[in-house]
Specification:
The complex is a heterodimer. By secondary structure, chain A is α/β, with parallel strands linked by helices. In chain A, the strands form five sheets. Chain A has an eight-stranded mixed beta sheet, sandwiched between helices. Chain A has an eight-stranded mixed beta sheet with strand order 20-21-22-17-23-24-26-25, with helices on both faces. In chain A, strands 2-1-4-5 form a four-stranded antiparallel beta sheet, covered by helices on one side. In chain A, helix 16 crosses helix 17 and helix 18 packs parallel to helix 19. The two termini of chain A are 43 Å apart. The mean pLDDT of chain A is 88. By secondary structure, chain B is mainly α. Chain B has one domain: MetI-like fold. Helices cover 76% and strands 0% of the residues of chain B. Chain B has eleven helices and no strands. The longest helix of chain B is centred in the first third of the chain and has 36 residues. Chain B is globular and about 75 Å long. The chains are: A alpha/beta, B mainly alpha. Chains A and B meet through helix 2 and helix 4 of A and helix 6 and helix 7 of B. The structure holds adenosine-5'-triphosphate, iron/sulfur cluster (2 copies) and magnesium ion.
Chain lengths: 681, 261
């Protein structure tokens, strides 16, 4: 085993010189990769993961200064000439990026884009190249491999585009494959198929793989060894099983306990743990303490006065911490029990009946004549729901399934074409403009992107006071006091009131948005992917904040997310939607355990589980949610259903079946509930 | 001339004839408008074509050179120069050129009036100053467009992909940067053909160049409604045609539009 490693990174540092000052993105990163091994790099946003990956490619802006060394097969990358570097790139070291849509040239056929790498680096004639491209497309699981090359990127779905990128990276049989968040931004179902492909590459290619992600579930699925990065340093490194079973660095242990439990059976009985504060912002190059000290629960005076080094603590594991022997399961606090709400009966606050919405109008080809073109998109189709007081209804589904349309219809941002919304049994007007002030303040919304929902030119104070004065009849003085109180309630110092949104981090902005939503004492808060853009540590903080608010104020949530772990953690009831239809609806435990609707089953088996010993469920969905335009007599899921019964699914709408003994749990499928239970066992 | 008839009726008659290709008689001089347009349209076309042929390739090239390596000396000079050229209206550039090259140096005639029997091709000197004026504005404008688009594309993720494929910089620029940077540049140029016509009309006026633009000005001067309507019609038709050509060109360049879906 004393072979030279394929890639050896030692004490890498990268500093960017920008007009606004220097940013030290990477300060002490060290790791090795051998052939046939997948090294996962994990850490929160801004920890320097991507910068490290691009440094290995020798691709950093000219304003960057690097230190330390990166050696590939014993040769230092930084000492290579331009020509040698070109010979390496795409050939010996290849990369797959986040966001395949923008990483492919939009005006060039994908076949040519793959050909280009081959003809640059290999000495093949045109027929051999053409054959190789088709072979590559086949090997990454693209259907119609021989036609694929003639397509332009915009004709492919996100998952197919990423497969093309992977084919391109594999084209010259690279020795090192770098993947930077290749599934971030894709739907869970697509992510699962791409992860299957990456996992299969491990066996097929004799390359080392550097896999960068912020998602611990993904790391558990693909990595053999893991390097954890914090503020530009590798703080822990070990094999994936040890890392998940007994993390040795407080940050690793904290990250692991921040992640909501994977979707599974049973109520989540303990609260999420939180890492306080935010990622150390990489401004100063020289520090004289542990960078994690501010957030670390076991920091002592040694930690604030001297700098820990990355040290071996086992044959294959390293950690950068003075007190790694003191890291235990309760480092981040003991188990906090949650109060079970399962059997608490509560009155219904909000009901929706047959909410239906279509985007766009029907148009004829020649003004008033000819065939229909541009049929309206049927975004919501007769959706029924109820939200009890003090409880949470979670809504899950892939992108394009109608989740946000439902949220907007409830808040009145769009006028649903049909259906009835009732607040405490009284009809709610469909648009927010026509609602009374009481109704408006009763239903508030928190959006995914906090930056977009706060006015960038207004101080936080102005934003909060505006909505307070509008809805609560407070005086200027009174609302100022209330604003300060709201800030404290969401865990922010009232001095933040004087700041502009741009002076806050993403997590802080989301807290302000939540403070704003609670300014009116709402009964329902609609949260549309409110934690999706946040790092796990901040996500845990925000989820916990939402939980506290609910416990104190007794409000309800309509909680939309694509993350099944999160939905399991927050929801009392869950609605699974697909193409504007309810697939399954019921108490969350019942929905997440068998029997399930085939769509729920597929979502569950796609969700990455933050546990390396978990056996991945092989059930997969290809493609994406279809845009429903035509009236379709059969089942809404028929085009993708992995358990499709037969022609009945194409010709008859599925019946609403009451699942199990639970009266409130419904599954819309032709397969009898008993059979579902058997096939899913 | 039918001045006794109702204006609406006269307009209807004019349209009816215009559709047949007969624009009627000018109010003075006794020539048909058709013959006036016919003699002047080629002159304008010549001016526009020469200006375009000089300005488009050179400015695209300069814009690309500036955009590929922004913030170099070359880029600064081109950027500042073009900003100046854009902020000065054509008639001022024209007058300045006229003062320097015609009045002071006497190299070129200050007006482009043709004597009877002369043609432009026979006296190419009269083309120089008008062309230069139009070229100046066009050059600056196209250069800035091309530069901005090249810079944007250079920063795109797909150019990063191309570089990290190990392609040479030459291939990256020719295969990945230029096609994508030229799509929006050409589109914007084409969609602004109308704006450039405005420039040509002004320049023709300044130099008394015998084109369709000065015909329009002449119609205004002499209050010849019919001539005015007719020249406006011709200019509008050219404008519409140019825009159509621009859209077709865009479709040809951009696969996202080309596909019949
Ligand atoms: N070209 C650049 N100029 C200046 N600062 C930069 C540049 N690229 C990255 N940074 C900064 O370097 C730090 C590390 O960024 P990097 O993209 O490597 O993080 P990351 O771990 O990949 O984060 P994410 O999970 O969000 O992708 C951040 O503070 C970032 O703002
Ligand atoms: S060195 Fe100290 S502050 Fe740093 S992680 Fe270890 S215990 Fe925490
Ligand atoms: S009705 Fe048929 S197509 Fe629809 S979910 Fe059930 S099995 Fe699948
Ligand atoms: Mg990154």
């Amino acid at each position: 085993m004393n072979k030279e490693p394929l890639l050896k990174v030692e004490n890498l540092s990268v500093t960017f010189f920008t007009p606004r000052g220097t940013v030290t993105a990477v300060r002490e990163a060290s790791f090795e990769i051998s052939r046939g091994e997948v090294l996962g790099i994990v850490g929160e946003s801004g920890c320097g993961k991507s910068t490290t990956a691009f440094a290995v490619m020798g691709y950093l802006p000219t304003t960057a200064e690097t230190g330390g060394s990166i050696s590939f097969e014993g040769k230092d990358i930084s000492s290579l000439s331009k020509e040698d570097l070109r010979e390496l790139r795409g050939n010996r070291i290849a990369m797959v990026y986040q966001d395949p849509t923008t990483s492919l040239n939009p005006s060039m056929k994908v076949g040519i884009q793959v050909q280009e790498v081959i003809s640059e680096h290999l000495n093949l004639d045109q027929t051999a190249i053409d054959e190789k491209v088709v072979e590559l497309f086949e090997s990454v699981g693209l259907a119609d491999a021989d036609q694929m090359g003639d397509r332009y990127p915009h004709e492919l779905s996100g998952g197919m585009q990423q497969r093309v990128m992977i084919a391109m990276a594999l084209a010259c049989d690279p020795d090192l494959l770098i993947m930077d968040e290749p599934t971030t931004g894709l739907d869970v179902t697509t992510e699962a198929t791409i992860l299957d492909l990456v996992a299969s590459l491990k066996e097929r290619v004799n390359a080392g793989i550097l896999y960068v992600t912020h998602n611990l579930g993904v790391i558990a699925r693909v990595a053999d060894r893991v390097a954890v990065m914090y503020a530009g340093q590798t703080v822990e490194q070990s094999n994936v099983n040890d890392l998940f079973a007994s993390p040795r660095h407080p940050y690793t242990s904290g990250l692991l306990s921040c992640v909501p439990k994977p979707p599974g059976t049973g109520e989540v009985s303990s609260r999420l743990k939180r890492i306080p504060g935010f990622v150390y912002s990489s401004q100063e190059a020289n520090v004289s303490s542990c960078l994690f000290a501010e957030r670390c629960p076991i920091a002592d005076s040694e930690c604030t006065t001297s700098v820990p080094a990355l040290e071996f603590i086992g044959q294959d594991s390293q950690v950068r911490c003075f007190h790694s022997d003191k890291v235990e399961p309760d480092t981040w606090g003991g188990v906090e029990e949650r109060i079970s709400r399962k059997d608490v009966a509560s009155p219904i606050v909000l009901t929706g009946n047959e909410i239906t919405h279509q985007y766009g109008k029907r148009r004829k080809k020649y003004m008033a004549f000819g065939p229909d073109i541009d049929l309206p998109v049927r975004a919501l189709n007769k959706i029924d729901f109820e939200i009890p007081q003090g409880k949470t209804l979670g809504i899950v589904g892939e992108s394009g399934s109608g989740k946000s349309t439902l949220a907007r219809a409830v808040v009145g941002l769009i006028k649903a074409q049909d259906g009835l919304l009732q607040l405490h049994g009284n009809e709610l007007d469909k648009t927010v403009e026509n609602r009374s002030n009481e109704d408006k303040s009763a239903i508030q919304m928190v959006f995914q992107n906090p930056t977009a929902s706060l006015n960038p030119k207004l101080k936080i104070k102005k934003t909060l006071i505006r909505s307070l004065m509008r809805f609560s009849k407070l005086t200027k003085q009174g609302s100022e006091e209330r604003a300060a109180a709201l800030m404290e309630e969401v865990g922010l110092d009232p001095s933040y009131l004087e700041r502009l949104p741009s002076e806050l981090s993403g997590g802080e902005q989301q807290r302000v948005a939540i403070a704003g939503a609670f300014a009116t004492n709402p009964e329902i808060v609609v949260a549309d992917e409110a934690v999706s853009a946040l790092d796990v540590s901040v996500q845990a903080q925000v989820l916990s904040l939402l939980e506290d608010r609910q416990q104190e104020l007794g409000n309800s949530y309509l909680f939309i997310t694509h993350d099944l772990g999160v939905v399991r953690y927050v929801s009392d009831d869950i609605m699974v939607v697909y193409a504007g239809h309810i697939a399954e609806y019921g108490p969350s435990e019942a929905v997440l355990s068998s029997p399930s609707h085939p769509y729920t089953e597929a979502l569950l088996s796609a969700a990455p589980i933050p546990d390396p010993s978990a056996k991945p469920n092989p059930l997969r969905l290809e493609g994406a949610v279809p845009t429903m335009r035509e009236e379709f007599p059969g089942c809404f899921f028929a085009s993708r259903c992995p358990r499709k019964l037969g022609s009945v699914c194409d010709t008859e709408a599925p019946p609403v079946q009451k699942a199990s003994a639970n009266e409130n749990h419904v599954i819309n499928c032709h397969i009898p509930v008993k059979d579902l239970e058997i096939i899913q066992a | 001339m039918g001045l006794d008839r109702h204006p609406v009726e006269r307009y209807a008659v004019w349209i009816k004839n215009a559709v047949r290709g007969d624009l009627g008689m000018a109010a003075r001089g006794g020539a048909t408008i058709n013959s006036m347009v016919k003699s002047r349209l080629p002159n304008s076309a010549l001016l526009a074509a020469v200006a375009f042929l000089i300005a488009v390739p050179t400015s695209l090239l300069a814009g690309v050179l500036a955009g590929i390596r922004p913030d170099t000396k070359l880029d600064r000079i081109l950027s500042i120069g073009s900003l100046l050229a854009i902020s000065i209206p054509e008639f001022i550039i024209g007058v300045i050129l006229m003062m320097v090259f015609a009045t002071k140096l006497g190299w070129f005639p200050s007006s482009s009036i043709l004597l009877p029997g002369e043609t432009i091709l026979g006296t190419p000197k009269i083309l120089v100053l008008p062309t230069l004026t139009i070229t100046g504005a066009l050059f600056a404008y196209i250069l800035r467009m091309a530069r901005a688009n090249v810079i944007e594309v250079m920063e795109s993720n797909y150019v990063r992909t191309a570089i990290l494929k190990g392609l040479s910089m030459r291939k990256v620029v020719f295969k990945h940067v230029l096609p994508n940077a030229m799509i929006p540049t050409i589109t914007v140029i084409a969609n602004n053909v109308g704006w450039m016509f405005g420039g040509i009309i002004v320049v023709e006026f300044v130099f008394a160049y015998p084109g369709i633009g000065s015909l329009l000005i002449m119609a205004i001067d002499t209050r010849d409604m019919r001539l005015l309507q007719s020249t406006a019609l011709v200019i509008a038709a050219i404008y519409a045609f140019a825009n159509l050509a621009a859209d077709l060109l865009y479709g040809l360049l951009n696969p996202r539009v080309r596909v019949g879906q």
